[in-house]
């Protein structure tokens, strides 16, 4: 029970990945505040409902754990503050924050409306910021009360490989998920002195958010491993939330059934220098145009080899 005595918040935990993560944290001993706004549409539409969050909280309690449901919009600053207060008031402290809540409003960039952009950025990116802001303030105050000692908080954020691949029909989602990576690494640096870690996962899992992506890839019915089951993502979240992961922070992971990959920070793919103060247009055309002509579109951004292309 590596999380015994710990308190966790999991946002968007009424279904899918969030539910699997909440159940895993409870299995490892944590008391869990199960947050979900409960709207039925994956685009955030419909009436809010307490049913999804309460169902997961009840599932945890029936298994012998401790859980409280919270129905609220984490993209609302005050409701996010209320969520953190609920965890602290109910269980005495907050130790783990898992940000998972999100919606989809897919559209090509040339057709996307302002509301489709704003709503996805709001729920994913602002939602991650809001809860992080209040959890971070809580840990900072706890550290002050302990004469500056570490408090050991944990943040696990949910990004996506869409921020790397570009995901052409999801400019809002890809931008939000890229922003979450930046928020994660910044938070990791800011909270390190308090003993708090922050990491991001890019999960591959079959949920209502990804039903289009994995259409046709149904769960196997022969008893073999379902590599896209949300339950295969949850153990990494449990590990990152545990004391054993104190030395892991500012990292980005890709995870699905049977596989965990640690992403590297972007590397320089090619370096060009000029002996003069600045390149001319013709010089850049003479070097960069043939360089990119030799590579498939998008390959260079993901490359890890330093090519050492140099001029001067």
What are its keywords?
alpha/beta, 8 strands, Peroxisomal_Beta-Oxidation, EC 1.1.1.100, 12% strand, disordered C terminus, 38% helix, 8-stranded mixed beta sheet, 3-oxoacyl-[acyl-carrier-protein] reductase (NADPH) activity
Please specify the SSE layout and strand pairing.
Blueprint: E1 7-10, H1 16-27, E2 31-35, H2 51-62, E3 67-70, H3 77-91, E4 96-99, H4 114-145, E5 154-158, H5 162-165, H6 171-191, E6 197-203, H7 234-240, E7 252-256, E8 259-262, H8 281-293, H9 299-302
Parallel strand pairs: 1-2, 1-4, 2-3, 4-5, 5-6, 6-7
Antiparallel strand pairs: 7-8
Enzyme class: oxidoreductase
Protein name: 3-ketoacyl-(Acyl-carrier-protein) reductase
Family: Belongs to the short-chain dehydrogenases/reductases (SDR) family.
Shape: globular
Helix-strand pattern, N to C?
A: EHEHEHEHEHHEHEEHH
Q: Give the domain tally.
A: 2
Mean pLDDT: 87
Q: In the CATH hierarchy, what is the superfamily of the largest domain?
A: NAD(P)-binding Rossmann-like Domain
- Work out the strand percent: 5-15%
Strand order of the largest sheet: 3-2-1-4-5-6-7-8
Structural class: alpha/beta
Biggest sheet record: 8 strands, mixed
What is the helix fraction of residues, given as a range? 25-40%
Here the CATH topology of the largest domain equals Rossmann fold
The whole-angstrom Rg is 21 Å
Distance between the termini: 60 Å
The number of helical runs is: 9
